[in-house]
UniProtKB/TrEMBL annotation:
Residue ranges of the region described as Disordered: 14-41
Pfam family membership, one: Trypsin_2
Protein source organism: Isoptericola luteus
Record has ATP-binding as a keyword: no
SUPFAM superfamilies: PDZ domain-like, Trypsin-like serine proteases
Name of protein: Trypsin-like peptidase domain-containing protein
Sorted UniProt keywords: Hydrolase, Protease
Length: 353
C-alpha cells in the first residue's frame, strides 16, 4: 500500500511539473498507408509477399495414416475439380489400405482418394470431392536458369502455410528421392530455399507465381542416416516431368518411363558410363530388339554423352533418359574399342511401378 501510494504521489507531482505546456501528441511519423480495400496489408503482386498470398490458398497439407503410423507432407491443387499433386513417398504409407486426409489453407479437411502413383518418378495424384478450387499453373521448367528466384511452399515439420525463399542453385542434379523401399532417380532442380521434412510434395514457385518444381528431397551431411533438416541443398522434380506424369496418372492411374534397353556396370571407374560386359541376374546386357540393340550398341560399350551433355556416372545417364518421354529420340556418344561415334536411339517405354 505504501509503495503504491508513494508511486501515485510522485507520478502526480511529475505530471504537474510538466505543466499544461506539455504537447498532447509526440508527433511521430505516421506509418504509410499500405492497406488494401478489404483492410489487409497490400503488397505488389510481384513481391515475395504478393506471390505467397496468391499461391498459399492452393497449397495443402497431407496426413497419411497407415500400417507404419502417421506421416505428413504437402501438395497443391492441380485442377479445380479436386485433383491434387504430391510425392509418392508422402502417400505410399497409406496406398494399400490407409487413410489420406487433405487440409486446405482455410483449415477445412477432406478425405482423399489415391488416383495413381509412380515410384520411378516419386509422384502421386490425389482426388478430393470438391469443386471450384484454385489450381496452380505448372510453368515451363525448361525456362528455369541458375540464379532464378524461387519460393518453396508447404508444411515443413507440420507447420502449414510456410514459405521460404532462395534461388535455383543448379540444374540436372541426379538425385535419389523417396524412401529406401520405393526410391526414384530424378533429374532435379537444386535450390537453397529452406526445405525440411514435410515440405515434400509442395510447390517450388517462380517469381511469376508458376510452379517450376515439386519439392522432393534434402541433402544431408555425410554420415547422417535420416533427413534432419535443411542445409541449403534441396531438390525438386521439374514441372515439365510432373505435368506429363500427372496427366498419365489421371488418365490411366499408371505412368510409363523411357528406357534404352541396357544394363549398366556400376563398378566401372573410367570415363563415361559402361554397358555391362555380360548378363546380370539372367538379364542380358543389351535387350534383344530393344532401342540400344537396334541402334548398334553392344555389351561393353562406353556411353560418353547424351545429346551433347557428358555423363560420368550411371545415375546421370538414367535421369537424363528419364527426363525424356517414350518415343523421343536421343543422340548418344558411344565408344567401342577406342572408336567413338554418335548413335541415334529412339526410347522405348516401360510401365512404372
Amino acid at each position: 500500500m505504501v509503495a503504491g501510494l508513494v508511486g501515485g504521489v510522485v507520478g502526480d507531482r511529475l505530471s504537474d511539473a510538466v505543466g499544461p505546456d506539455r504537447p498532447s501528441d509526440a508527433d511521430l511519423p505516421a506509418p504509410a498507408d499500405g492497406v488494401a480495400l478489404d483492410g489487409t496489408p497490400s503488397r505488389p503482386a510481384d513481391s515475395v509477399a504478393g506471390i505467397a498470398a496468391a499461391v498459399l490458398p492452393s497449397v495443402v497439407s497431407i496426413e497419411v495414416t497407415g500400417g507404419d503410423g502417421v506421416s505428413t507432407g504437402s501438395g497443391f491443387v492441380l485442377r479445380s475439380d479436386g485433383y491434387i499433386l504430391t510425392n509418392n513417398h508422402v502417400v505410399s504409407g497409406g496406398a494399400a489400405d490407409g487413410d489420406v486426409v487433405v487440409t486446405f489453407a482455410d483449415g477445412h479437411e477432406r478425405d482423399a482418394e489415391l488416383v495413381g502413383r509412380t515410384t520411378d518418378y516419386d509422384l502421386a495424384v490425389l482426388k478430393v470431392d470438391e469443386s471450384g478450387l484454385e489450381p496452380l499453373v505448372l510453368g515451363d521448367s525448361d525456362d528455369v536458369v541458375v540464379g532464378d528466384a524461387v519460393l518453396a511452399v508447404g508444411a515443413p515439420l507440420g507447420l502449414d502455410a510456410t514459405v521460404t525463399t532462395g534461388i535455383v542453385s543448379a540444374l540436372h542434379r541426379p538425385v535419389q528421392a523417396g524412401d529406401d523401399a520405393e526410391s526414384a532417380f530424378i533429374d532435379a532442380i537444386q535450390t537453397d530455399a529452406a526445405i525440411n521434412p514435410g515440405n515434400s510434395g509442395g510447390p517450388l514457385v517462380s517469381s511469376a507465381g508458376e510452379v517450376v518444381g515439386i519439392n522432393s528431397a534434402i541433402a544431408q551431411p555425410p554420415g547422417a542416416l535420416t533427413a534432419t533438416g535443411s542445409i541449403g541443398l534441396g531438390f525438386a522434380i521439374t514441372a515439365n516431368q510432373a505435368r506429363h506424369t500427372a496427366e498419365q496418372l489421371i488418365e490411366t492411374g499408371r505412368a510409363t518411363y523411357p528406357v534404352i534397353g541396357v544394363l549398366l556396370d556400376t563398378t566401372y571407374g573410367g570415363e563415361g558410363v559402361q554397358v555391362s560386359t555380360g548378363a546380370q541376374q539372367g538379364q542380358p546386357a543389351v535387350t534383344p530388339e530393344g532401342p540400344a540393340d537396334l541402334a548398334g550398341i553392344r555389351a561393353g560399350d562406353v556411353i560418353l554423352a547424351i545429346d551433347g551433355r557428358p555423363v560420368a556416372r550411371s545415375d546421370e545417364l538414367i535421369v537424363a533418359i528419364r527426363a525424356r518421354q517414350p518415343g523421343d529420340a536421343v543422340t548418344l556418344r558411344v565408344r567401342t574399342d577406342g572408336d567413338e561415334r554418335d548413335v541415334r536411339v529412339v526410347l522405348d517405354g516401360q510401365e512404372s511401378g
